[in-house]
Specification:
The complex is a heterotrimer of chains A (540), B (544) and C (327). With 540 residues, chain A is an all-alpha fold. Chain A is built from 20 helices and no strands. The longest helix of chain A has 38 residues. Chain B contains 22 helices and 11 strands. The relative contact order of chain B is 0.12. Chain C has a two-stranded antiparallel sheet. Chains in contact: A-B, A-C, B-C. Chains A and C meet through helix 1, helix 2, helix 4, helix 11 and helix 12 of A and helix 1, helix 3, helix 4, helix 6 and helix 7 of C.
């Protein structure tokens, strides 16, 4: 019980001290304009206290026997310093009081720092300085950064090691199944966009100008063609012993490539056709329609998965993590937020979805380790494998089965999606609730369907919130290492940068650990820059 | 304007500074004084103890020489007696009474001399004993002067093993009042690294990887054991245990606990029912595996999943096979990186293990499941009848008991046999592992606790508490205290094994032994790397 | 009024009908009713999928080890007699190495409450300062502060540990003269060290989120208040804090969850008086002995966050980040 009382006292005292500090600082700023000598006295007193503390701490004063124990003496020195400082400064302030307008200018300059100062001190001391130290360490030779000189070796190690970063085999992206399906989805999305544009022209709903879209489509088509050409050339170049004709023939005959070419051709054809149609009729494509935007989301997920599941290396894997978890959690969270709005049992449902947030990362790893558990044919203890076995498949190890690569990554990511969907849902549901009713009502009066209201009225309204959610998720996901550590510890191509960074800490390689941290920071930075620029635009 | 805002910034910083400075004051001084006094007292007591020890050594020497003298005198007396007897026997008729008298006198003299020498020896011994008690008293005094001091220990032991560890210090606390504060944690290594780097390590750290102990010794962070301490506790251990933690001539670790790894768990009942004999050689083991498969049974249960340490069970198999295929010498070269990790012999060992594991029907669930089944669950799988044998260290006993085994040992549900050797030329090699306690501060109380960990008293107290599994590598501990004859047998193996080899992955640098060896090993087992690729990748990860 | 309410009414109407009444409805109407129920079905499907793992954990926390290892948790209902409370009893049992879990729960509270309140207070000041006050370098400072979100926290461990252990010292180069910039605060290994660390790590996100909210509050109120002679402090205290309460509550919940569930920071910065997360992990042995306690522990530690979420849920619904929606 003692502990409990101590705890309450500590908490109360520390909160009270903070409150007094903050209010006191505000009062002090008030007195710049009102009572100048009081202000100078306060500042002087503080300076005096500091001086006293420094003197006392560094032992620059001979210890007089008259003052009694060292503790008392310490406080006396502080006190004396404070009183003396306050007195001198008060007299000084009284003698040289500046004009009122200058003082109020000073007060205005000072006040913001009272508000933002505490945050700056915390972040400066707790993050900025350590961050600078990290950057510095990452450039030092040796493992603990105690040797003289600088080196870029740690970065070189990361980017020249094939397990961390390689673009080898990149060309397989464009002939992969996922990528091709993704292209088809792009075509479908474009088709849907065109189809719904025809519907909209007479209606009142707003349509974005399509000029930029068309230009983008053209550029994308060109880039695609270039990439597929390069992929073909690369795969031909890999086997230099054959005759060129045979090569081309083999490549063309291999089904995947043919499929890829067909898909690309289809995309081009549709794009050209759409462009022509749009020009001729002056119809604007509507990418904001429900069908086309959801198709576009699916398409981009497929394309990104296609690309990132093909590329090897920890850095790519990390990017895949970020995209998957941030993307899926947000999409699922939004879906749930929308569904919950229209469902019965909304509160209970939301709480149950949110529940994983209340589970620690360690707990989540325990739960899912258990879900994915595998036993030989027979009595399964893991639910997933029990279901698999029940419908006639052989049970498999989801994380560490070589035949699962690279999808074992996905099963680990899914744990994170499971945790973070609740976060996205709660925030987005709140944002949807906050959309002004006049807007939705007006749209409904105009005869817009429920889907149209959502996509054309609600979505634009909650866009900023979506961006905040995505950003938060990206930041959280980039730093994830516990899940990977607890499930596979990076075996079978499941490693991520944060786990590697932690391993380096464990192995006492502080410098290369720092280099990993800097790379992680650099990975997240573009997202942060985007966010901040958006914020600034909004502030302007 | 510009200048003013800077001014305010500076003032703001000063303000914060002042408050912090005011708030903390300087109240740590009295405690500093206190500890210094305690330190001085302790140092004094230590000096006294050392002096007493020196005196005891002197007395011992004296006693020895006196004893030697007495022996010599006695020998001379015996000689004289023999001469007398011979003379008496030589001639009944030609007895020279003079000669007899002389011999008799000689004998008497020698006897007296021997008595005197013996008395002197006894005296010296008594003196020695007195100095010894004095020394013990001085030691006691030193320890008593440490009463109330706190020693912090960081270690990997958690759960019931942490209970056992803490229970081991109870006699020390009762005798000396030193308080041991133990903090067990999953990731003691990282925490230790951070604390050392920040300049505030715990007093003592229990480290299961001798490789890391050497690293800390070389970097000057760990405190070398004082020679006197080694003199006192060294005799209780096979020198091997100290060699593991020796770097640059300094010993840094006190052996804390040991594990025996070359064990195969089997069900005595199951073997009896099928008429299986315990294999005495590798050929017999292979024949047994074939028989089992012929009877429709699966020989092995293997699982290497262990969360963040997934893969270590594979490294254990490799180590055992390395010892059996290529012997302790090559094993040492492998550990010390005298041969590269991708040496053909290492690859061959990996393939040898792979051959056992990946052959259809050898392992329950087949190759695909090995890397995702937990090593812990294999005990339950074994009890369930999935397989007939499970190669795992002694700590698997706890898993068996949890999974429902009633008892261990020849009459219990499961028992162990020694994983047979492949060729006789290397002897009965035993693979084991263990932890050492390493000091990171040189306070007298730290060293007192460290030394205590090295005594049989600690081992006995820990065994007697019967909390968590524990085998002591200390030769002098009382094996009768183990709660089961099974543990006693294992402890005897641990203390007497020869040749004994320490777990290679724990001896290799952390990047390998707790990193790539596990990770790439798992890749090899699950099939995403060949044995060569695995060995190649581990070699690449070896820090230069 | 809104479509939501009308729809709710419609579905309630449907729910209130007897099966006979429902059967008597024309097919078209029934289909439409079914379609109106569609979101409910989908949501509950996802909810069930999302809850199953936790349910499995919950069931397993009452099972004995041999059962857990040999049969799926969904078979537990076959043999309800085999369920036991022993795991929970074991979690709360006092051992030689660890005091009772209640003490660790207190430690957790002692760590989490200030580690939630301090960052929120500091972030609220800063959010107001950055949003509604004009000063030189405002944008750059804000960018700098917020971009610190991206810094991996682990890298700050060593410097912070050094600070807490030894204070900050600066040796003047060439002079061999060491200045004590910050004396040894004596807070190494105390809850205060963990508060400060959580505050520093949580602040950038807190400032970003709260700034988003505060900057969208109607400025004309503040203008009016200023004309009436209110100081910034008064405006902050009397207007901003009440208006931003939903956002503050929402962030409080998240910060609470993060600090409550934190294992890493607590285990690095504390060697004694650790929070529950650390103690619960330590219940399981080095070689996975007593692993079944993990299930019960995961539940024990979930209870408090769920209570907090339930009690603050109202505030979310009233509009977390409502300000970030332009209206």
């Amino acid at each position: 019980m003692d502990q409990f009382i101590t705890m309450i006292i500590t908490v109360v005292v520390s909160l009270a001290v903070s409150a007094v500090l903050f209010i006191g600082a505000n009062r002090a700023v008030d007195s710049v304009r009102g009572r100048w000598p009081a202000f100078t006295a306060a500042v002087g007193g503080m300076v005096g206290l500091v001086a006293g503390a420094v003197v006392q701490h560094n032992g620059w004063l001979p210890r007089g026997p008259a003052l009694g124990g060292p503790l008392k003496e310490g406080w006396l020195v502080l006190l004396a310093g404070g009183v003396a400082g306050a007195g001198i400064a008060a007299v000084g302030g009284w003698l040289t009081e500046p004009a009122l307008d200058r003082r109020s200018r000073w007060a205005d300059t000072l006040r913001p720092w009272v508000f933002v100062g505490p945050a700056l001190i915390f972040v400066g001391g707790g993050l900025v300085l350590p961050g600078l130290r990290t950057a510095f360490l990452s450039l030092k030779p040796g493992s603990r950064g105690r040797e003289p000189g600088f080196t870029l070796d740690h970065y070189k190690d990361i980017f020249t090691d094939d397990t961390f970063f390689t673009v080898e085999g990149w060309s397989a992206i464009f002939t992969g199944r996922l990528f091709i399906v993704g292209l088809v989805a792009v075509v479908a999305a474009a088709g849907a966009a065109w189809a719904s544009s025809a519907l909209i022209v007479g209606g009142r709903a707003q349509v974005a100008t399509a000029g930029g879209m068309l230009r983008g489509l053209k550029i994308a088509a060109l880039v695609l063609v270039a990439l597929v050409m390069a992929a073909l050339i690369e795969s031909i170049a890999r086997e230099p012993n054959r005759s060129a004709v045979m090569d081309v023939l083999t490549v063309v005959v291999s089904s995947r490539v043919t499929l890829g070419i067909a898909a690309v051709a289809a995309v081009l054809a549709v794009a050209v056709w759409l462009i022509a149609r749009a020009r001729g009729r002056e119809v604007e494509m509507d990418w904001g329609s429900p069908a086309s935007s959801s198709l576009a989301v699916v398409a981009s997920i497929l394309l990104i998965f296609g690309a990132l599941s093909t590329l090897r290396g920890v850095v790519w894997n990390n990017i895949w993590w970020v995209v998957t978890v941030a993307g899926l959690s947000t999409v699922l969270g939004l879906l749930l937020a929308v569904l919950a709005e229209r469902s019965r049992g909304e509160r209970i449902g939301k709480t149950l979805i949110f529940m994983p947030m209340a589970i620690s990362m360690v707990g989540a790893a325990v739960i899912w380790d258990f879900m994915y558990e595998v036993q030989p044919m027979g009595n399964q203890t893991g639910l997933f494998n029990a279901v698999l076995q029940g419908i006639g498949f052989t049970p498999r190890g989801f994380f560490i089965n070589a035949s699962m690569i690279p999808w074992n990554n996905f099963w680990i990511m899914f744990i994170m999606v499971w945790i973070q969907t609740g976060f996205a849902m709660v925030v987005l549901a709140a944002a949807i609730r906050a959309v002004p009713e006049e807007l939705t009502e007006a749209a409904e009066v105009d005869g817009a369907s429920r889907a149209q209201v959502f996509w054309r009225v609600v979505m634009p309204q909650i866009r900023p919130t979506i961006i905040v959610v995505v950003t938060t998720l990206i930041v959280i996901v980039t730093k994830v290492f516990d899940l990977v550590k607890a499930t596979t510890n990076g075996a079978n191509r499941t490693n991520v940068l944060a786990n590697e960074m932690f391993d380096q800490l464990r192995d006492r390689n502080f410098t290369s650990s720092s280099a990993f941290a800097v790379v992680l920071f650099a990975l997240v930075l573009p997202v942060m820059v985007y966010n901040i620029r958006r914020l600034q635009r909004e502030l302007a | 304007m510009k200048n003013h805002s800077r001014l305010w910034l500076i003032l703001g910083a000063l303000l914060a500074f002042a408050l912090v400075a005011t708030a903390c004051g300087d109240d740590d001084e009295p405690t500093v004084a206190d500890t210094s006094a305690a330190d001085a007292a302790a140092a004094e007591a230590q000096a006294e103890a050392d002096a007493a020890q020196a005196a005891a050594a002197d007395a011992q020497a004296e006693a020895d020489s006196a004893q030697a003298e007495a022996d010599a005198a006695a020998a001379r007396a015996a000689e004289a007696e023999a001469a007398l007897a011979a003379a008496m026997a030589e001639g009944d008729d030609a007895i020279d009474p003079e000669q007899v008298a002389e011999l008799e006198a000689q004998m008497a003299e020698a006897m007296a001399e021997a008595d005197a020498a013996a008395a002197r020896a006894a005296e010296a011994e008594a003196a020695m004993e007195a100095t010894m008690t004095e020394m013990e008293e001085a030691m006691m005094e030193m320890e008593m002067s440490l009463a109330g001091s706190v020693v912090t220990i960081l270690g990997p032991e958690t759960g019931s093993e942490a209970d056992g560890f803490v229970a081991g210090f109870e006699p020390l606390r009762e005798r000396t009042g030193i308080v041991v504060r133990y903090s067990g944690t999953r990731d003691a290594t990282t925490e230790l690294n951070l604390a050392v780097e920040a300049g505030d390590p715990p007093d003592i750290v229990v480290i299961p990887q001798p490789g890391r102990i050497k690293q800390f010794g070389d970097s000057g962070d760990a405190v070398a054991l004082p020679q006197e301490m080694l003199d006192r506790i060294g005799g209780s251990y096979d020198p091997f245990w100290f060699d593991l933690a020796t770097s640059g001539g300094n010993v840094y670790g006190v052996p804390n606990k040991g594990d025996v790894k070359s064990l195969v768990w089997y069900s005595p009942q199951g073997f009896a029912d099928n008429g299986y004999e315990i294999p005495q050689s590798w050929a017999e083991l292979e024949a047994l595996m074939e028989t089992m498969k012929g009877n429709g049974q699966t020989p092995w249960c293997v699982g290497i999943e262990s969360g963040a340490a997934t893969g270590w069970a594979f490294t254990d198999w490799m180590e055992d096979m390395m010892l059996r295929l290529h012997g302790p010498d090559v094993y040492d070269q492998w550990v010390n990186h005298d041969i590269p990790f991708n040496d053909a012999r290492v690859v061959a060992v990996a393939e040898f293990v792979g051959n056992i594991w990946f052959t259809e029907g050898n392992v329950s669930g087949g190759r695909d499941l090995i890397s995702q089944r937990s090593f812990r669950e294999m005990a339950a799988a074994h009890l369930n009848g999935e397989c007939m044998m499970h190669r795992q260290a002694n700590f698997a006993g706890a898993h068996y008991l949890e999974a429902g085994a009633s008892s261990l040992g020849p009459d219990g549900d499961v028992n162990v046999f020694y994983l047979p050797t492949i060729s006789d030329e290397f002897g009965t090699v035993v693979l084991g592992a263990g932890t050492h306690a390493v000091a990171f501060t040189d306070k007298p109380e730290t060293l007192a606790v460290l030394e205590y960990i090295g005594t049989a008293e600690y081992a006995n107290a820990r065994i007697a508490s019967d909390k968590g599994g524990f085998l002591s590598p200390n030769r002098d501990h009382d094996t009768s205290l183990y709660s089961s004859s099974f543990d006693r047998g294992l402890a005897e193996i641990l203390v007497s094994a020869n040749p004994f080899r320490f777990d290679a992955s724990d001896l290799m640098p952390g990047e390998v032994g707790a990193g790539e060896f596990w990770r790439s090993g798992t890749d090899f087992v699950s099939g995403s790397k060949t044995a060569e690729e695995f060995a190649e990748d581990v070699e690449d990860a070896w820090p230069s | 009024m809104t479509a939501v309410q009308t729809r709710g009414a419609a579905s309630e109407q449907g729910a209130g009908m007897t099966p006979a009444q429902r059967a008597a409805m024309p097919t078209g109407l029934r289909l439409r009713r079914l379609a109106a129920e569609f979101p409910t079905w989908v949501m509950w499907l996802i909810v069930i999928l999302w809850t199953v793992p936790t349910l499995g954990l919950f069931v397993s926390s009452f099972r004995k080890v041999p059962d857990i290892e040999t049969s799926g948790w969904w078979t537990a209902w076959n043999d309800l007699d085999n369920l036991t409370l022993q795991n929970y009893r074991d979690v709360f049992r006092e051992t030689t190495a660890q005091p009772s879990m209640w003490e660790f729960a207190l430690n957790s509270v002692a760590i989490v409450v200030p580690a939630t309140i301090i960052p929120i207070a500091v972030a609220a000041f800063a959010a107001y300062g950055f949003a509604w006050m004009d000063f030189r370098g405002r944008n750059w400072l804000f960018i700098g502060l917020v971009s610190m979100i991206a810094l991996p926290n682990q890298m700050a461990f060593v410097p912070l540990l050094q600070l807490f252990n030894n204070g900050a010292r600066f040796t003047v180069p060439g002079l061999d003269w060491t200045l004590v910039l910050l004396p040894d605060l004596g807070i190494a290994n105390t809850a205060a060290a963990v508060w400060l660390t959580h505050t520093a790590f949580g602040l950038p996100l807190a400032v970003l989120l709260l700034h988003n909210f505060v900057s969208q509050l109607p400025g004309d109120i503040f203008e009016a208040a200023r004309i009436d002679g209110a100081s910034h402090f008064t405006i902050f205290w009397r207007l901003v804090v009440p208006l931003a309460r939903p956002a503050l509550a929402a962030f409080a919940v998240f910060q609470f969850l993060w600090t409550w569930n934190d294992y890493l920071i607590a285990s690095v910065f504390l060697n004694e008086n650790e929070p529950m997360t650390v103690a619960l992990v330590n219940l399981v042995g080095e070689r996975g002995q007593n692993f079944q306690l993990r299930f019960a522990s995961a539940f024990v530690i979930m209870v408090v966050p769920l209570i907090v979420f339930f009690s603050l849920q109202r505030h979310f619904v009233r509009g977390l980040l409502a300000g970030s929606v332009k209206g």
